[in-house]
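Request from the bench team (R.T.):
"We need a structural guess for the complex before ordering more flavin mononucleotide. Sequence and SMILES attached. Just send the C-alpha cells back."

Command: build protein-flavin mononucleotide structure.
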Amino acid sequence: MSRRSHPSSPDSSPREAKRQKLEYAPLTADDYKNGLMLAPMVRSGALPTRLYALKHGAKLVWGPETVDKAILHTTRVVDPVTGVVAYHGKSKPIFTCHPVERPFLIYQLGSADPALAVQAAKMVQQDVAGFDLNCGCPKPFSTHAGMGAALLSNPDLLCSILTALREAMPPEITVSAKIRLLPSQEETLKLVERIVDTGISCLTVHCRTRNMRMREKATIGRLREIVEFVERMGKGVAVIENGDCLGYEDSKRVRQVTGAHSVMIATAAEANPTCFSPTPLKDLEMTFVPGYIRLGKYLNNHWTSTKFCATQFQGAHDKARRSDLKTLREAIVHAKSYEDIEAHVAPWTGEQEFAEIVEAIEKRGGQRAPPIPLEDVVVAPLDAIQDNGELKDVTTTELMVPSLELANKEATSPPSLLGLEIPPISNSGEAIAVQ
Ligand SMILES: Cc1cc2nc3c(=O)[nH]c(=O)nc-3n(C[C@H](O)[C@H](O)[C@H](O)COP(=O)(O)O)c2cc1C
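Reply to R.T.: structure attached below.
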C-alpha cells in the first residue's frame, strides 16, 4: 500500500465515513463510571498506545496534555488512506487522533485562560468526546504559565476555565478535571465542591499532592471521603482514582479502598498497554512490540514517538528467551527510522493490526463498556482505611466480606461508622444486600 507522509485532503475521507457505522450515544457522567481509563501521558499516550489500550479493555482514553496555544497554531489534516487526523504544527503534529477512538477519547487541555481554552476546544471538538482540564502537572513548564498544578492554588481561575468550557461546548461534549490532592483534606473538599459545581461530568483525583514525587506511594486512603462527598452533592459526577494502580486485577484493591467509580492508570499502562485486560499480554517483546511498531508505521506515527513508546514497554516474562528480547530491544534502540527495524517486525503493513483494533472496538456494539466488565467489589468502611491506602489492623477479608456470624448478629443493617450508614456497594453503584 502506498503511504503518504502529510497529505492534504478534505476534512473527511470515504474510509473515515465507512468506519463511522456505529452510533454512540453522547458521552455522559455514567460513561466515566465502572471502568479502567488510560491516563493522559505526554509522549507515552500516543495514538497507537491509546488504540491498543482500547483493544485490551480501557473504557475511555485520555490524550496527552496539549496546551491551548499550541493547538491553536495547527492545521488539521486527514490522511485519506488511514483516516488519521493530525493537527500539524510548524515541524510536527501537535496532536494526532483517529475517528475510531473518537467516542472514547478525552482531550486533555493545558490552559490558564478561559478564552484560549474555549478557542482550543472549539478547534478539536469534532474529533473528541470530551475535554479534561489538567490541574495537576507539577512540572515548571506547566506551572510557570499558571497551568497544571498552579491552578490548584488559583481556584477562581481553575473554575472559570471549567465554566467557560461547559458553557461553550454542546451538551454532548463532556467537561472534566484532573486534580491532585491538596495538603489538607479540608482544603481538598472545598476545592472539589467548587469544581463539581461548575457542571463537570467527571473528576479524576491523582492521589498525590503537588510536592509528592512519583516514587512516593499515592495516598489513596484519602479518596474515600472525597468520593462520598461528591456523591452527597447529588450531581451524578463520576470520581476516578488515579495513582499506583497496576492493572485490571489490582483495580479491585483500589476500588475497595477508595469506593471510586473508576480507576485511571498511567505508569503501568506506559509499561504495558494491555494491563486493562484481566489477561494482560506477557513477553511483550514477542507478543506486542512488533505489532505496535507495524501499527505505528501504518498510522504514520512519527518514528521517534513509536520508538520512545516501544522502549518503555516491559511486561512479565514467561516463555521468551533472554537473547531474543535483547536482540529486539537493541534493534529498536539503534533504529533511526521504521526501515531500520523492518527485519524484526515484518511482514510490514500494519493494516492487520489496525483491523483487529477496529474489530475489538466494534465488538462493544456501540456501547463504551469493554466486553469484560469490572468485577463487583465491596467497598471498605471509611474509618477502616489509612491515608496510605492500607487497611487498619484487621485483615482485608474481615473488613470486606461481612461474615455470616456478623451478618446474623447485625440482622439486615449495614455497617455504621462515623454516623454514616455505609452499605457495601456493587460495581454498578447499587447497594449489595447483606445476606
Ligand atoms: C510519561 C508520563 C506522562 C504524563 N503526562 C501527563 C499529562 O499529560 N497530563 C496529566 O494530567 N498527567 C500526566 N502524567 C501523570 C499521570 O497521568 C498520572 O497522574 C500519574 O502518573 C499517576 O498515575 P500512575 O500512578 O498510574 O502512574 C504523566 C505521567 C507519566 C508517567
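Two things stood out. The chain has two domains: 26-271, 284-362. Residues 284-362 form one domain.
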